[in-house]
Specification:
It is built from 19 helices and 13 strands. By secondary structure, the chain is of the alpha+beta class. The chain has a five-stranded mixed beta sheet with strand order 5-6-9-8-7, with helices on both faces. A four-stranded mixed beta sheet has the order 2-3-1-4, with helices on both faces.
Length: 526
């Protein structure tokens, strides 16, 4: 029942379904500059009940309007006109994106109550550091960071709307298709300002199996056959990409990257302000999103630690938005998960333990890999571990500052180190495709830089005198770790590097100097 669902933590699929449904009842309006909120809502209500709305800044003021009934959108669309083609000719595609302007602006500037605007990006690191200095413990600093960076309810609605608007195009060709977000938009680890990864899904396959059993005939559609699934994916994305490029209101910089390992279309969606990556259904990526969703829901310390480590890594130039030999955010997140599995008692269960709790409806075999794990959060026993985030943060740096990366790899299925199957500097098993190393891109200098930074951070946390630093108004705790370790520290860094291969120390220290200049910029930029 609905009441029962609302009292417990919803499953990943329930949340997705609810949000996709919400997005179908939603429109986006570019508003006039002098807007009377009451008048706008009054007018919209003439088309049906407005269930929720918010305003945000995006080259002017925009409003996201969620109606209670889908039919209200058709009613509104009937009242909306096509732009007059004076200087430009228009592509007559009617979407759920509208521009409202006032008919007689002068008479309408009655009492002007300022609109509340929902922020769609997080504060710069330097502002964050000031906020952190006012907290009373590292633990509360970490929750402040989490609150500043995590996706808001409004931002999530906007992400699902972006997917829903792309789906309107896909449905012109494939009426049953859906477009769903995956990755950081849905796994509870998304940061304000991050891209939207979305995929096109044609998964109506299982639904009609019972219908098909009836009757004397085996019946199937005649469909175009192609030599490989990859080719089909490339053709579908190529056409949808052209469609967005030629007809999509506000879709700019459309790039078709069809020869990548996972073919995709990249584009900017100006009405929502998102950078989007569209690919075709990738079941394993969805399972990873759901696994992280489960870990993120189990204990509030999990997300606080992940957001903190990611922010720390970005400030010190350990991660980068450009692809390369850096550690990715996904790999970092997996390192945090592994660390939490290794605590005594463990804070989160291993993937094998989650698999043991799975029932029949949780069974997923994808491309020969067993991707089964429990979806109902109530079946997972809460942890008995009571360590504070203050302790966990220091221990994380301590643990990986001294981890034997030369010999061991990181396996989240078993929750323990296992011998490396091959010689990549950093080996993290893909939780589902058991023969894939998700950190294969990371080279030795980057790994050693991570180790050095972890040691340096562990050392800063151990030696610090919080009271003294607070009296001196110096950054302390997490705030001290989010300031690039400057040149004054480079002699300390050399000590910290003992036992690390000397051939990379020189290149490392150079890259540190180079990074200090850029890293604060990057941290602010992403």
């Amino acid at each position: 029942t609905d009441a029962e669902v609302s009292t417990r933590k919803k499953t990943f699929t329930e949340v997705q379904t609810e949000r996709l449904d919400q997005a179908e009842r939603t429109v986006l309006i570019k508003c006039p500059s002098r807007l009377n909120e009451k008048k706008l809502l009054q007018y919209l209500s003439s088309h049906g009940n407005v269930k929720s709305h918010f305003f945000f800044e995006n080259r002017g003021i925009s409003a996201l309007i969620e109606f209670s009934e889908k039919s209200s959108i058709a009613s509104l669309q009937d009242a909306v006109g096509i732009p007059s083609a004076s200087e430009h000719h228009v592509v007559p595609f009617k979407s759920r994106l509208f521009t409202f302007t006032l008919k007689n602006p002068v008479s309408q500037h009655v009492e002007q109550t300022p609109l509340h605007l929902s922020p769609q990006c997080h504060i710069p690191v330097k502002d964050l550091i000031q906020k952190l200095c006012l907290a009373d413990s590292i633990s509360s600093q970490m929750y402040i960071l989490l609150n500043e960076y995590q996706l808001t309810e409004e931002n999530i609605k906007l992400r699902f709307l972006a997917c829903s608007l792309v789906r309107d195009f896909a449905r012109a060709y494939f009426p049953d298709s859906t477009v769903k977000p995956f990755g950081s938009s849905v796994n509870t680890f998304g940061k304000l300002g991050s891209d939207v990864d979305m995929f096109l899904d044609f998964c109506d396959t299982g639904k009609r199996a019972t219908e098909m059993k009836k009757g004397p005939f085996e019946m199937e559609y005649q469909m175009k056959r192609l030599p490989s699934e990859r080719l089909a994916t490339q053709r579908i994305l190529s056409v949808i990409g052209d469609c967005l490029d030629n007809f999509g209101p506000g879709c700019t910089n459309v790039q078709k990257i069809l020869n990548a390992r996972c073919p995709l279309v990249k584009f900017s969606h100006q009405p929502t302000g998102f950078q989007c990556d569209l690919s075709v259904s990738n079941s394993i990526a969805i399972r990873s999103s759901e696994l992280l969703y489960i870990y993120g829901c189990l204990d509030s310390r999990v997300r606080a630690l992940v957001f903190t480590i990611r922010c720390w890594a970005r400030v010190h130039g350990l991660t980068n938005s450009a692809p390369g030999t850096w550690i990715t955010n996904f790999s970092l997140t997996m390192l945090v998960m592994f660390f939490l599995q290794k605590r005594s008692p463990p804070i989160i269960p291993t993937l094998d333990q989650l698999k043991e709790l799975a029932d029949d409806k949780d069974k997923h075999i994808i491309g020969g890999y067993d991707c089964s794990f429990v979806s109902d959060l109530r079946k997972i026993k809460p942890t008995k571990n009571t360590e504070t985030l203050d302790v966990l943060l220091g221990e994380f740096f301590e643990y990986f500052g001294n981890f034997d990366f030369r010999k061991n790899s990181i396996n989240l299925r078993k929750g323990k180190e296992v011998n490396k199957p091959e010689s990549s500097p950093l080996y993290i098993w893909n939780p589902f495709e058991q023969d894939v190393n998700i950190s294969k891109n990371v080279n030795q200098p980057q790994l050693e830089k991570f180790i050095a930074m972890a040691r340096e951070s562990a050392w800063i946390l151990q030696k610090e005198d919080k009271t003294q630093q607070m009296i001196n108004k110096e950054p302390w705790g997490l705030a001290a770790l989010l300031i690039p370790f400057g040149k004054s520290n480079s002699s300390m860094m050399k000590n910290r590097m003992k036992g690390i291969g000397s051939e990379t120390i020189r290149s490392l220290l150079d890259s540190l100097k180079l990074n200090n200049a850029n890293s604060q910029q990057k941290a602010v930029g992403k």
